[in-house]
Design goal:
elongated; 5 helices; mainly alpha; single chain
Length: 141
Amino acid sequence: MVWFSMEKYAHSSLNGCLEYVAKMAENPDMKEEKRKELTELIKQANESVTESQKKFLKFLEKTYSCSGLCKKSLFYITLDISNGRPKNTCTIGLINSVADQLTLFGYTLFFTGCLIFLVFILMMPLCCYNEKKLEQELKLN
């Protein structure tokens, strides 16, 4: 599956298409005003996405076979389009991958909270004792 029917312009991924457009801006046959416009658009696109964001997106798509965080995209950005359409958003893959670890962490927090509450209940008599009554009990013994 390719993005465009003419073989010269065919790309199997959106990334490949964007790289080709960046190379087109260096073409000396292009009109100067079009080259400036294309160069400006490429510059804006590169400034809005950092290299670490690109690597993270590539990792997500490759690991979870997903595209998009909030909404499912029509196609992958870094993977070959012959893989078909993405099946779900990357958020679902991320949630599923950390669910087991967070569940164990949740149980640990719940148990710790119950233990601290029990210690609080058990130490209440130490803080709220009646001094006079305690002295009388000590004198009787």
